[in-house]
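Hi D.,

Good news: the full-assembly prediction came through. Inputs first.
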Amino acid sequence: MDAKRAIAELERKVGELNELGQREGLALSEEIGCLQARLRDLRRSLLPAQATPEWETVKLARQPQRPYPLDYLSRIMEDIYELHGDRLYGDDQAVVAGLGRFAGQTVVFVGTQRGRSLEENKRRNFGMPHPEGYRKALRVMQLAARFGFPIFSLIDTPGAYPGIGAEERNIGGALAESIYRMFQLPVPIIVAIIGEGGSGGALGLAVGDRILMLEHAVYSVITPEGCAGIIWRDRTKAPEAAKALKLTAPHLLELGVIDQIIPEPPGGAHHDPDAAARALKEALDRQLQELLKLDQAELLARRGEKFQRMGCYEELTIAVGQSKEG
Amino acid sequence: MPIFGNKQYFRVKLEAEERGKDEALWLKCKSCGQLVFKRQVQQNRNICPKCGEYFFLTARERIKSLVDERSFRDIARPLVAVDPLHFVDLKPYPQRLEQAQQETGLASALVLGRAKIEKLPVILAVMDLRFIGGSMGSVMGEQIVHGLHRAAARRRAFILVSSTGGARMQEGILSLMQMAKVSAARHLLAEAAVPFISVLTYPTTAGVLASIASLGDVTLAEKGALIGFAGPRVIKATINQELPPGFQTAQFALEHGIVDQVVSRAEMRGEIARLLRFFVPGSGKMKRVPSGPTARQNGR
Ligand SMILES: [Zn+2]
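Then the structure:
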């Protein structure tokens, strides 16, 4: 209702300005253009949110029946042994970490884990980790480095938890530390975005030599809802934001952020978790065989270079205000 | 005059007039609500003379407040942002960029230079909050990496002054990846034993706090800073309760072990210089063991 009244008000103002401009011979096109842009936005805000293919993918990625890390790990590993706690504060169950046997060799796994029931979701905080989750994962990844075990990281999180305790225990620092240290672990790291890759909370465990993504997963700097809230002050415009953010696997492959898209069974991974797990296992196995051919120095150098290449800008020639560098 | 539209690149000169300053003589303090004489505020380091509230500094103002006179040289690479996503916004991203450039006279949200602080050579990287919220996109990521390389190669301390809302949404996933990129390059300083002082000011949040800003050897918070990964509004909406008083302030960060010191604006320059003197090459008597993961792996 407010929007409708605001539109009427703006239309009246535009009319007045037009009239004023003509009567007094004033150039008011800038002011009028400004009001008209505001009008366009308001009119658009009254339209029902448009569905977009990207938004359909977001919904699939968040599908509550979709397999989570432990569903995949139990299918692709011969044995798994979960480890608990960060040795500092507690055991964050939004993050899982531990040892696994994969194709005859020991590996370490880390991942963000949602719950399926309300009860389990309370325990796992809907897959939104606190600092201790990242510190647990880092502790276990450093164990992997000591023994030369490759690391698999399976990501499915809306993001790190925005709460008082998380801030008090320095969630920003925990993420930074995890990202920084993952560049120095001299063992192969393969990341798979299996559901929702939510911003810094996902990146905190997503530094690796290969970044894989399931066909219907998404990976984004901000949730579509958050983005829509900032741009249009209206979270129901999330479908449009999803489109703008280019957060689906094909877009990310094109942007050079991921290395491989893992196809899902028809309808999505939740329609046939066994088939989805087989595809994931095959991809992990193939990538791991390649990475195991590299020595440690080469592995680390390539991991660093991979991320140094990410980004997009234009380099100009200096023409004005030039000064010598020193 | 579109200064970057014609593909020229302007280096930052401290002597140049600050752009985007309005003509008003008075301004109203957001904190105490009083009208204060603008010149008086400026002479008071942009701190409200009535209530002591800190107003943020532009990158130029910040640099002037920290470095020795005439010691600053812009060493940024001549980079400007592009629109890799063709991002749909109320305003097209290129237009938003051009407007930010016009308003600030800067090419990007980060100014990078070499300078001296009480005669000690540093590489200084300073964010400007006016430039799309000081957000980190591909250009800022690359400039920070460039600064880290330069600091390591020339053995100059690296000083980062953050003032940012986090990653630049308009560059989507590529801005998220800048967090990884700058964090990866941080080890250059560790290997060269070059100190990194991270200065957190109003505001240091989200993607920048969760990467390079949290990776300093020493971390200082300026009085009046806001320091937090998630914004207060987001947290409030999530937990559905009021935030405790003083939440995410500099003092909060100190009390929770997130920063080493809280420093007033007037003392920041002296405090950084004092710290740097502890790190002057040759200050440590122990021979340095080669660092880095490979060295450690073979170190048995
Ligand atoms: Zn005041």
